[in-house]
Amino acid sequence: MQVVSVVLYLILAPFVGALLDGFDRIISARMQGRKGPPLLQPFYDLAKLFSKQMLAVNSVQMLLNLSYLVFLAVAGAMLFAGADILMSLFILSTADMFLVMAASSDSSPFSTLGAGREMIQIMAYEPMTLLLAVGFYLATGSFQVIDIIRMPYSTVLTMPGFLIGFFFVMAIKLRKSPFDLSTSHHAHQELVKGLTTEMAGPTFAIMNIAEYYEMTLMLGIVALFFINENWWSWPIAIIACLFVFFLEILWDNVCARVKWRTLLDSCWVVTLLSGGLNGLILMLIR
Amino acid sequence: MAKLAKSPWLLHYDASSCNGCDIEVLDCTTPRYDIERFGIINTGDPFQADILLITGGINNQCESVVRQLYSQMPDPKVVVAVGICACTGGVFKDCYNIKGGVDTVIPVDVYVPGCAARPQAIIDGVVKALEILEQKRKAYSEKQEQDSRA
What is the pTM (predicted TM-score) of this model? Predict the structure, then answer.
């Protein structure tokens, strides 16, 4: 069973991510009064990127981008295998470090600045992801995903604060406004393309596929809040994931990009208020 | 349709334009014209661009920039000269500082005349460029195969 779920994740996650990205672009376009690209546009983009010339300033960038992809796939595979969620989140941060290294491996000032901003983003979301693992432990008595989804009730009932906090930092992970400081899906930001500035063709395609793995992993964690031992919790979890994803798109479209200081302050305050308070309450009632 | 034609990403550079054509290029991204429905993204990054849109004639200051942008774009790539100044130099043709159209510096594939070029004309030019891009992609992949055999 676990093997099946891991294999399904490794094969399907890029497709799910790309499809969600396609929906994202259409919904965003409709919110802006435009028609938007076809649903399969992310697939066309990937096919195009792979057919382009391999243009790289050094040979290590591709290796580091591949490491980013592999570590994200491992982090997601751990979650979908029902293994330790703490370990999965640690590997997730390790993966991000490879992206930072890939971006700072070249001499472009835009790329280097983007890498610096990515580090700030890691600082902003890391407390919440760690608290999240602690929260699941406090609520269920285990770090193992397999135990969390076998609870008699959904964990969202005891840890709604963590869900709010996670929704907040997920905007960073999905590279949504107001937190898309290091690189953005939209053109014309002040850093050109930020940390992806010097990634061309296949290298950029690898980075995009890694992001799709990450997107699926993030939504998997959201689903973890809703799944319990009853079968009907699974469709509810999927609907909840889609709803959360829609809220992120809405937030992306109504917000402007913030400065790094605001990013840090707001993320830490929300982490403390929603995650921290919820954690304290869980500790007291245990 | 082929790979490149479904996902062409633009790089827009203002050589010495009066901004008339630039505003029309940006107009293409607004809800009325919405070039994203063709999968076109106006990216600011030469490393990720397939089509180079240049407005305005080339002068001595921007010549090196245009050369560098062109060399930073991965193959296959096409260049679209937008507006009469980018095509021939326009009314500035005889100025002491103007070298002429974009084709005095880099090879141009599609010329879009007009002062300013209308958004419809720009979109039409880009769609023409897509056909050329596809031919270039075929030539490029054949060349790749020959190189790998050699």
Answer: 0.91
